[in-house]
Amino acid sequence: MSKFFEMIKALMYFVVGTLISFFLRRLTGGPAEFWVELYVASAFGIGWGLAYFVDHPEWSLPKKMGISFIGIVFLVAVGLLCFNFETAVPSIIKFSTVFVAYYMIASFRESKSLRY
Question: 10 Å Cβ neighbour count for 20?
Fold first, then answer.
């Protein structure tokens, strides 16, 4: 599969993950500001999309963790610029939980990847 289509699929995971998380939060959570809800939901989408993007068995663990760290730094920067510290921290926890869950599920497969 070409790298272009891999990127498109990772972006699709980001959008789908964000939408699912956003609508579940809106339906089950208490009333909150729209932009806060969207920011926290995007943490789920970014975690899912990045986990899929770095799911290459030939990539080294430091490379995967470096890309994950860039995602966390991005979330923190947006959270601190647009919101406050109390909003930014839960988004990092959500991102990390989704990222780790993706690889925990992948570890049960023989290929150690959900992509292949």
Answer: 14
Q: How confident is the model at residue 1 (pLDDT cuts 50, 70, 90)?
A: low
Would you give the distance in Å from CA 99 to the centre of its chain? 6
CA distance 95 to 91: 6
- Say if CB 45 and CB 17 are below 8 A apart: yes
CA distance 41 to 20: 8
Token duo for residue 39: 């920011």
- In the chain, what are the domain boundaries? 3-106
Q: 6-50: per-residue pLDDT in tens?
A: 889 889 999 999 999 999 988 887 777 889 999 999 999 999 999
For residues 74 and 66, give the distance between their C-alpha atoms in angstroms, rounded to a whole number: 12
